[in-house]
């Protein structure tokens, strides 16, 4: 991104020739546009301080109102975390059942009269 490109796009946004930009933090440093109405953050990929700074780009002018919108992935919501935890618990329970079956089969095989005939445990699913 050249300084010329940066300046042209800031001016186009200021003059309402374009309605929005998808930018980085570096692009917005020193940007003095008091009437930004909407800031959209995709993913919560930064700390709270950085997020607050980004949201602060909206409505910097006296008497201006703006909105900040944070779009998060499902895995970062309470419902997403609950579903992940339930899935993890389910997997652990299934692994525990398999482990119990293995132990039972191993215990049975050691009591076998012909241990040479049982070379390894057999798992039933």
Describe the structure.
It contains four helices and two strands, in the order H-H-E-H-E-H. It is mainly alpha-helical and 125 residues long. A two-stranded parallel ribbon has the order 1-2. Helix 3 (48-55) links the parallel strand 1 (38-42) and strand 2 (67-71). The longest helix is centred in the last third of the chain and has 33 residues, at 78-110. The two termini are 58 Å apart. The model is unreliable at 112-125 (pLDDT under 50).
Characteristics:
two-stranded parallel ribbon; elongated; disordered C terminus; 125 residues
Short description:
The chain is mostly helical. Helix content is 46%, strand content 8%.
Sketch the topology as an H/E string, one letter per element: HHEHEH
Total beta strands = 2
* Overall residue-averaged pLDDT value: 77
Helix amount: 40-55%
What is the terminal separation in angstroms? 58 Å
Q: What characterizes the major β-sheet?
A: 2 strands, parallel
Enumerate how many helices there are, as a single number: 4
- Strand proportion, as a percent range, falls in 5-15%
The secondary-structure class comes to: mainly alpha
Q: Catalogue the unreliable spans.
A: 112-125
The strand line-up of the biggest sheet is 1-2
Approximate shape: elongated
Rg, Cα atoms, Å: 29 Å
């Amino acid at each position: 991104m050249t300084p010329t490109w940066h300046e042209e796009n800031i001016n186009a946004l200021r003059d309402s020739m374009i309605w929005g930009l998808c930018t980085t933090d570096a692009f917005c440093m020193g940007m003095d546009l008091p009437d930004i109405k909407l800031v959209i953050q995709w993913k919560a990929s930064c700390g709270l301080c950085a997020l607050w700074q980004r949201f602060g780009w909206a409505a910097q002018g006296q008497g201006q109102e703006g909105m900040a919108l944070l779009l998060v992935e499902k895995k970062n919501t309470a419902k997403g975390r609950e579903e992940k935890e339930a899935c993890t618990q389910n997997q652990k329970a299934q692994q525990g059942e398999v482990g119990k079956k293995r132990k039972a089969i191993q215990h049975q095989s050691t009591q076998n009269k012909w241990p040479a005939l049982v070379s390894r445990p057999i798992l039933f699913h």
